[in-house]
Amino acid sequence: MPAILPSPAFLYGTAWKEDRTANLTELALRTGFRGIDTANQRRHYFEAGVGEGLAAAYRAGVVARSDLFLQTKYTYQRGQDHRLPYDPAASLATQVAESLASSLEHLGTDYVDSFVLHGPASGYGWNESDSEVWEAMCKERDAGRTRLLGVSNVSLGHLQQMEASHAEMPRFVQNRCFARAGWDREVRAFCRERNIIYQGFSLLTANKEALQHSSLIDLARELDATPAQVVFAFARALGMLPLTGTSSAAHMREDLASVAMELPRDLVNAIEAIAG
Ligand SMILES: NC(=O)c1ccc[n+]([C@@H]2O[C@H](COP(=O)([O-])OP(=O)(O)OC[C@H]3O[C@@H](n4cnc5c(N)ncnc54)[C@H](OP(=O)(O)O)[C@@H]3O)[C@@H](O)[C@H]2O)c1
Fold it and tell me: Could you give the CA distance from residue 191 to residue 177 in angstroms, rounded to a whole number?
Protein backbone atom coordinates (compact mmCIF):
# COMPACT_ATOMS: atom_id res chain seq x y z
CA MET A 1 0.00 0.00 0.00
CA PRO A 2 1.26 3.50 -0.77
CA ALA A 3 2.04 6.00 1.98
CA ILE A 4 -0.98 7.74 3.43
CA LEU A 5 -1.98 10.72 1.29
CA PRO A 6 -3.28 13.82 2.96
CA SER A 7 -6.95 14.24 2.14
CA PRO A 8 -7.31 16.23 -1.07
CA ALA A 9 -8.76 19.73 -0.74
CA PHE A 10 -11.84 18.84 -2.79
CA LEU A 11 -13.79 15.74 -3.72
CA TYR A 12 -15.36 15.39 -7.13
CA GLY A 13 -18.76 13.71 -6.78
CA THR A 14 -19.91 11.31 -9.49
CA ALA A 15 -23.61 10.87 -8.66
CA TRP A 16 -26.37 11.31 -11.26
CA LYS A 17 -24.09 11.38 -14.30
CA GLU A 18 -25.15 8.11 -15.94
CA ASP A 19 -23.50 7.73 -19.34
CA ARG A 20 -21.56 10.98 -18.91
CA THR A 21 -19.83 9.52 -15.82
CA ALA A 22 -16.66 8.30 -17.56
CA ASN A 23 -16.08 11.51 -19.52
CA LEU A 24 -16.82 13.78 -16.56
CA THR A 25 -14.58 11.77 -14.24
CA GLU A 26 -11.75 12.01 -16.76
CA LEU A 27 -12.41 15.73 -17.23
CA ALA A 28 -12.36 16.29 -13.46
CA LEU A 29 -8.96 14.60 -13.25
CA ARG A 30 -7.63 16.59 -16.22
CA THR A 31 -8.89 19.77 -14.55
CA GLY A 32 -6.98 18.93 -11.37
CA PHE A 33 -9.29 17.03 -9.00
CA ARG A 34 -7.49 14.28 -7.13
CA GLY A 35 -10.32 13.07 -4.90
CA ILE A 36 -13.22 11.08 -6.39
CA ASP A 37 -16.41 10.17 -4.53
CA THR A 38 -18.64 7.38 -5.78
CA ALA A 39 -20.84 4.55 -4.44
CA ASN A 40 -21.76 1.00 -5.41
CA GLN A 41 -25.37 2.11 -5.77
CA ARG A 42 -26.38 1.85 -9.41
CA ARG A 43 -29.57 3.79 -8.74
CA HIS A 44 -27.63 7.06 -8.32
CA TYR A 45 -24.07 6.25 -9.45
CA PHE A 46 -22.48 4.49 -12.40
CA GLU A 47 -19.36 3.24 -10.62
CA ALA A 48 -18.11 1.21 -13.60
CA GLY A 49 -18.21 4.47 -15.57
CA VAL A 50 -16.01 6.09 -12.92
CA GLY A 51 -13.57 3.22 -13.46
CA GLU A 52 -13.61 3.88 -17.23
CA GLY A 53 -12.83 7.54 -16.61
CA LEU A 54 -9.96 6.63 -14.29
CA ALA A 55 -8.56 4.15 -16.82
CA ALA A 56 -8.68 6.79 -19.58
CA ALA A 57 -6.82 9.26 -17.36
CA TYR A 58 -4.18 6.64 -16.46
CA ARG A 59 -3.70 5.73 -20.14
CA ALA A 60 -3.26 9.38 -21.06
CA GLY A 61 -0.70 9.84 -18.29
CA VAL A 62 -2.83 12.48 -16.53
CA VAL A 63 -2.57 10.74 -13.14
CA ALA A 64 -1.49 7.47 -11.57
CA ARG A 65 -3.54 5.50 -9.05
CA SER A 66 -1.18 6.58 -6.26
CA ASP A 67 -1.99 10.27 -6.94
CA LEU A 68 -5.65 9.69 -6.19
CA PHE A 69 -8.01 9.48 -3.27
CA LEU A 70 -10.83 7.11 -4.25
CA GLN A 71 -13.87 6.83 -2.03
CA THR A 72 -16.83 4.49 -2.43
CA LYS A 73 -19.76 3.36 -0.30
CA TYR A 74 -21.73 0.35 0.86
CA THR A 75 -25.48 0.97 0.54
CA TYR A 76 -28.17 -1.05 2.30
CA GLN A 77 -30.69 -2.79 0.04
CA ARG A 78 -33.40 -0.24 0.86
CA GLY A 79 -31.28 2.48 -0.77
CA GLN A 80 -30.77 0.43 -3.94
CA ASP A 81 -32.87 -0.52 -6.93
CA HIS A 82 -32.85 -4.03 -8.46
CA ARG A 83 -29.20 -3.65 -9.60
CA LEU A 84 -27.60 -4.89 -6.39
CA PRO A 85 -23.85 -5.35 -5.98
CA TYR A 86 -24.38 -8.23 -3.53
CA ASP A 87 -26.64 -11.16 -2.76
CA PRO A 88 -29.52 -9.69 -0.72
CA ALA A 89 -30.06 -13.07 0.97
CA ALA A 90 -26.50 -13.06 2.33
CA SER A 91 -25.62 -11.70 5.77
CA LEU A 92 -24.86 -8.00 6.02
CA ALA A 93 -21.20 -8.79 6.64
CA THR A 94 -21.08 -10.78 3.38
CA GLN A 95 -22.91 -8.01 1.53
CA VAL A 96 -20.28 -5.50 2.68
CA ALA A 97 -17.46 -7.74 1.41
CA GLU A 98 -19.25 -8.39 -1.91
CA SER A 99 -20.04 -4.72 -2.41
CA LEU A 100 -16.43 -3.65 -1.87
CA ALA A 101 -15.08 -6.46 -4.06
CA SER A 102 -17.39 -5.28 -6.84
CA SER A 103 -16.30 -1.65 -6.30
CA LEU A 104 -12.64 -2.63 -6.62
CA GLU A 105 -13.46 -4.35 -9.89
CA HIS A 106 -15.42 -1.33 -11.16
CA LEU A 107 -12.60 1.03 -10.23
CA GLY A 108 -9.78 -1.20 -11.49
CA THR A 109 -7.86 -1.11 -8.23
CA ASP A 110 -7.03 -3.40 -5.33
CA TYR A 111 -7.78 -0.85 -2.61
CA VAL A 112 -9.84 2.28 -2.12
CA ASP A 113 -8.76 5.16 0.08
CA SER A 114 -12.07 5.42 1.87
CA PHE A 115 -15.04 3.07 2.27
CA VAL A 116 -18.18 4.70 3.62
CA LEU A 117 -21.43 3.40 5.09
CA HIS A 118 -23.86 5.32 2.86
CA GLY A 119 -26.38 5.76 5.64
CA PRO A 120 -27.42 3.99 8.84
CA ALA A 121 -30.27 1.47 8.68
CA SER A 122 -32.64 3.76 10.58
CA GLY A 123 -33.00 7.50 10.93
CA TYR A 124 -33.71 7.00 14.62
CA GLY A 125 -30.44 5.58 15.81
CA TRP A 126 -27.37 3.41 15.33
CA ASN A 127 -28.68 -0.17 15.51
CA GLU A 128 -27.47 -3.78 15.40
CA SER A 129 -27.45 -3.89 11.59
CA ASP A 130 -25.18 -0.85 11.54
CA SER A 131 -22.88 -2.50 14.07
CA GLU A 132 -22.63 -5.64 11.94
CA VAL A 133 -21.89 -3.57 8.85
CA TRP A 134 -19.33 -1.43 10.68
CA GLU A 135 -17.47 -4.47 12.04
CA ALA A 136 -17.39 -5.93 8.51
CA MET A 137 -16.06 -2.63 7.15
CA CYS A 138 -13.30 -2.66 9.79
CA LYS A 139 -12.34 -6.17 8.61
CA GLU A 140 -12.11 -4.93 5.01
CA ARG A 141 -9.80 -2.18 6.21
CA ASP A 142 -7.70 -4.68 8.19
CA ALA A 143 -7.40 -6.79 5.03
CA GLY A 144 -6.03 -3.77 3.14
CA ARG A 145 -8.93 -3.29 0.75
CA THR A 146 -9.56 0.22 2.07
CA ARG A 147 -7.18 2.58 3.85
CA LEU A 148 -9.82 4.49 5.78
CA LEU A 149 -13.48 4.27 6.79
CA GLY A 150 -16.39 6.68 6.90
CA VAL A 151 -20.10 7.03 7.63
CA SER A 152 -22.61 9.21 5.82
CA ASN A 153 -26.02 10.76 6.44
CA VAL A 154 -25.61 10.61 10.20
CA SER A 155 -27.04 12.70 13.02
CA LEU A 156 -25.24 13.63 16.21
CA GLY A 157 -27.29 10.88 17.91
CA HIS A 158 -26.07 8.24 15.46
CA LEU A 159 -22.48 9.25 16.11
CA GLN A 160 -22.88 9.27 19.89
CA GLN A 161 -24.47 5.81 19.84
CA MET A 162 -21.81 4.55 17.46
CA GLU A 163 -19.13 5.81 19.84
CA ALA A 164 -20.80 4.01 22.74
CA SER A 165 -20.87 0.71 20.78
CA HIS A 166 -17.51 0.58 19.02
CA ALA A 167 -13.85 0.93 19.85
CA GLU A 168 -13.22 2.54 16.53
CA MET A 169 -14.74 5.66 15.03
CA PRO A 170 -14.75 6.69 11.36
CA ARG A 171 -12.08 8.88 9.80
CA PHE A 172 -14.76 10.65 7.70
CA VAL A 173 -18.32 11.80 8.16
CA GLN A 174 -20.08 12.77 4.93
CA ASN A 175 -23.27 14.80 5.36
CA ARG A 176 -25.60 17.09 3.45
CA CYS A 177 -24.68 20.44 4.86
CA PHE A 178 -27.62 22.75 5.53
CA ALA A 179 -26.95 26.40 6.31
CA ARG A 180 -30.20 26.46 8.27
CA ALA A 181 -28.69 23.91 10.69
CA GLY A 182 -25.71 26.20 11.28
CA TRP A 183 -23.99 24.35 8.43
CA ASP A 184 -24.39 21.09 10.45
CA ARG A 185 -22.78 22.76 13.45
CA GLU A 186 -23.36 19.97 16.01
CA VAL A 187 -22.02 17.17 13.85
CA ARG A 188 -19.05 19.31 12.79
CA ALA A 189 -18.22 20.02 16.44
CA PHE A 190 -18.38 16.30 17.29
CA CYS A 191 -16.06 15.55 14.37
CA ARG A 192 -13.61 18.33 15.22
CA GLU A 193 -13.21 17.06 18.79
CA ARG A 194 -12.33 13.57 17.51
CA ASN A 195 -10.20 14.51 14.53
CA ILE A 196 -12.82 13.13 12.12
CA ILE A 197 -12.83 14.88 8.75
CA TYR A 198 -16.25 16.29 7.89
CA GLN A 199 -17.13 16.02 4.20
CA GLY A 200 -19.94 18.38 3.16
CA PHE A 201 -22.16 17.81 0.14
CA SER A 202 -25.04 19.78 -1.39
CA LEU A 203 -23.30 22.92 -0.17
CA LEU A 204 -24.80 24.82 -3.12
CA THR A 205 -28.04 22.95 -3.80
CA ALA A 206 -29.19 22.73 -0.16
CA ASN A 207 -28.43 26.38 0.55
CA LYS A 208 -30.05 28.42 -2.22
CA GLU A 209 -31.22 31.12 0.21
CA ALA A 210 -27.78 31.55 1.76
CA LEU A 211 -26.24 31.80 -1.71
CA GLN A 212 -28.65 34.61 -2.56
CA HIS A 213 -28.07 36.46 0.70
CA SER A 214 -26.97 40.02 0.00
CA SER A 215 -23.98 39.86 2.34
CA LEU A 216 -22.65 36.74 0.60
CA ILE A 217 -23.18 38.28 -2.84
CA ASP A 218 -21.47 41.53 -1.73
CA LEU A 219 -18.56 39.59 -0.28
CA ALA A 220 -18.16 37.58 -3.48
CA ARG A 221 -18.09 40.80 -5.48
CA GLU A 222 -15.46 42.30 -3.14
CA LEU A 223 -13.29 39.19 -3.50
CA ASP A 224 -13.84 39.03 -7.26
CA ALA A 225 -15.19 35.52 -6.77
CA THR A 226 -18.51 33.78 -7.38
CA PRO A 227 -20.92 33.06 -4.49
CA ALA A 228 -20.25 29.34 -5.08
CA GLN A 229 -16.52 29.90 -4.62
CA VAL A 230 -17.18 31.84 -1.41
CA VAL A 231 -19.27 28.95 -0.06
CA PHE A 232 -16.54 26.40 -0.84
CA ALA A 233 -13.82 28.62 0.68
CA PHE A 234 -16.03 29.17 3.72
CA ALA A 235 -16.62 25.42 4.08
CA ARG A 236 -12.89 24.82 4.00
CA ALA A 237 -12.28 27.60 6.54
CA LEU A 238 -14.67 25.74 8.87
CA GLY A 239 -12.53 22.63 8.49
CA MET A 240 -14.74 20.80 5.98
CA LEU A 241 -13.68 18.77 3.00
CA PRO A 242 -16.23 19.93 0.40
CA LEU A 243 -17.69 17.95 -2.51
CA THR A 244 -18.78 19.28 -5.85
CA GLY A 245 -20.58 17.32 -8.51
CA THR A 246 -20.58 19.93 -11.23
CA SER A 247 -20.87 18.76 -14.84
CA SER A 248 -19.44 22.01 -16.20
CA ALA A 249 -15.78 22.43 -17.14
CA ALA A 250 -15.89 26.11 -16.15
CA HIS A 251 -17.38 25.30 -12.74
CA MET A 252 -14.74 22.60 -12.20
CA ARG A 253 -12.05 25.24 -12.71
CA GLU A 254 -13.87 27.76 -10.53
CA ASP A 255 -14.38 25.27 -7.74
CA LEU A 256 -10.72 24.25 -7.70
CA ALA A 257 -9.65 27.90 -7.75
CA SER A 258 -11.55 28.39 -4.47
CA VAL A 259 -8.92 26.22 -2.74
CA ALA A 260 -6.51 29.16 -2.87
CA MET A 261 -9.03 31.58 -1.31
CA GLU A 262 -8.52 32.44 2.32
CA LEU A 263 -11.37 34.13 4.08
CA PRO A 264 -10.65 36.29 7.14
CA ARG A 265 -12.13 34.85 10.35
CA ASP A 266 -14.66 37.68 10.78
CA LEU A 267 -16.08 36.94 7.32
CA VAL A 268 -16.22 33.22 8.10
CA ASN A 269 -18.15 34.03 11.28
CA ALA A 270 -20.46 36.34 9.36
CA ILE A 271 -21.30 33.66 6.78
CA GLU A 272 -21.76 31.05 9.51
CA ALA A 273 -24.34 33.36 11.06
CA ILE A 274 -26.28 33.97 7.83
CA ALA A 275 -28.58 31.04 8.25
CA GLY A 276 -27.51 29.68 11.60
N1 LIG B 1 -23.60 10.49 0.85
C2 LIG B 1 -24.69 10.80 0.20
O3 LIG B 1 -25.78 10.33 0.51
C4 LIG B 1 -24.61 11.77 -0.94
C5 LIG B 1 -25.80 12.38 -1.39
C6 LIG B 1 -25.70 13.32 -2.42
C7 LIG B 1 -24.48 13.59 -3.01
N8 LIG B 1 -23.35 12.96 -2.57
C9 LIG B 1 -22.05 13.19 -3.24
O10 LIG B 1 -21.82 14.57 -3.33
C11 LIG B 1 -21.59 14.91 -4.70
C12 LIG B 1 -22.03 16.33 -4.94
O13 LIG B 1 -23.45 16.39 -4.85
P14 LIG B 1 -24.21 17.73 -4.45
O15 LIG B 1 -25.49 17.35 -3.83
O16 LIG B 1 -23.26 18.60 -3.69
O17 LIG B 1 -24.66 18.43 -5.75
P18 LIG B 1 -23.99 18.52 -7.15
O19 LIG B 1 -24.32 17.30 -7.88
O20 LIG B 1 -22.58 18.96 -6.97
O21 LIG B 1 -24.80 19.68 -7.80
C22 LIG B 1 -24.30 20.98 -7.78
C23 LIG B 1 -25.25 21.82 -8.60
O24 LIG B 1 -24.86 23.18 -8.47
C25 LIG B 1 -24.64 23.70 -9.79
N26 LIG B 1 -23.55 24.68 -9.77
C27 LIG B 1 -23.67 25.95 -10.10
N28 LIG B 1 -22.54 26.61 -9.98
C29 LIG B 1 -21.63 25.74 -9.57
C30 LIG B 1 -20.26 25.82 -9.26
N31 LIG B 1 -19.54 26.92 -9.39
N32 LIG B 1 -19.69 24.73 -8.82
C33 LIG B 1 -20.37 23.60 -8.69
N34 LIG B 1 -21.66 23.45 -8.99
C35 LIG B 1 -22.29 24.52 -9.43
C36 LIG B 1 -24.28 22.50 -10.62
O37 LIG B 1 -24.57 22.82 -11.96
P38 LIG B 1 -23.44 22.54 -13.09
O39 LIG B 1 -23.35 21.06 -13.24
O40 LIG B 1 -24.01 23.24 -14.27
O41 LIG B 1 -22.18 23.15 -12.60
C42 LIG B 1 -25.21 21.43 -10.05
O43 LIG B 1 -26.50 21.55 -10.58
C44 LIG B 1 -22.36 13.84 -5.49
O45 LIG B 1 -21.92 13.72 -6.81
C46 LIG B 1 -22.05 12.63 -4.65
O47 LIG B 1 -20.76 12.15 -4.97
C48 LIG B 1 -23.40 12.06 -1.55
Answer: 14
Q: What is the Cα–Cα distance from 7 to 34, expressed in whole angstroms?
A: 9
Per-residue model confidence as pLDDT tens digits over 27-37: 999 999 999 99
Give the pTM: 0.97
| Contacts with 142 (C-beta within 8 Å, 6 or more apart), sequence order | none
- Nearest Cα residue to 119 out of 62, 85, 170, 70: 170
* Mean pLDDT, residues 8-32 taken together: 98
Distance from the CA of 16 to the center of ligand 1, in angstroms? 9
- C-alpha span between 115 and 101 (Å, rounded): 11
Share of the chain residues as helix, strand and coil, in percent rounded to the nearest 5: 50, 15, 35
Ligand 1 interacting residues, C-beta cut-off 6 A: 13-15, 37, 118, 152-153, 174, 201-205, 226, 228, 243-248, 251, 254-255
> In a 10 Å sphere around its CB, with 0-12 CB exposed, 13-18 middle and 19+ buried, how is residue 37 labelled?
buried
Q: Are 84 and 77 in contact (CB under 8 A)?
A: yes
Question: Cβ–Cβ contacts within 10 Å for residue 220, how many?
Answer: 18
Residue 125, helix vs strand vs coil: strand
**Model confidence pLDDT, tens digit, residues 65-88:** 999 999 999 999 999 999 999 999
Residue 174 CA, closest ligand 1 atom number: 1
CA nearest ligand 1 atom 33, residue: 246
